Amino acid sequence: MILLGAHTSIGGGVFKALLRGKELECTTIQIFTKNANQWYTKELKIEDIEKFKKTQKETGIKPVVAHNSYLINIGSKDKDLLKKSQESLLLELTRTEKLGLQYLVMHPGSNPDEKDGIKRIANSLNWVHQKTPQYKAIICLETTAGQGNTFGWRFEQLAQIIELVEEKGRLGVCYDTAHTFAGGYDIRDKKAYDETFREFNKIIGRKRIKVIHLNDSKKGLGTRVDRHEHIGKGFIGLVAFEILMNDSKFEKIPKIIETPKIEDWDRINLKLLKSLVKNK
Asked: pTM of the predicted model, to two decimals?
């Protein structure tokens, strides 16, 4: 079974994301557990949790990956924003845990001072971990495109954060193809692909990858601009996705598309990715 799916909407109830995923023939999906444009939200009701778990069992979609709010910046110099971000991350991780999800994907954060920002991110993660000693859900730091002062566009930055986190076993990485490409890591042919993942393995460790975002890029290599494009329609091209879809090292890793939500393009992109898988 190929673990392939899309980010689906929770509009009308968290369980609805699973039904939308089923319609797209997804075997895995990614969701926001709350409104991504708001800091706080009402607590999940027991009936909502039960309905989600019942629907997940019925659809067979597993794992379901959570993605936290883009408002969160646990690397911020602003004390108020930092505190609000830490509390919001704690809330997101708690919702992820209550729904029985394995992973919570998050952008590491931003700060004009790299050393200070990385330290704040690690301290924030340590704080959240200390507040949740029994949680099984793993926070996955996402590779970023490097726009502005965001961290995660160089593998070394993620490695530095992980090094400063006390409970390293509670951290994973979400590898985003569009982000890393915009950050300067090429995967457009087998040679470039192998070189990039050799570097990742050397600096972070391939086993740290828990989730993969499959997105083509509207912008070129090393532009540090975060713009997703449909599979094979951007600067990365189809060859890279064919290599990745057939890479046995990532066979058991959930692969999620976050391509533009236009018309029926989720279905088109997923169908195309499935067609790239060679019979073994």
From this structure: 0.97
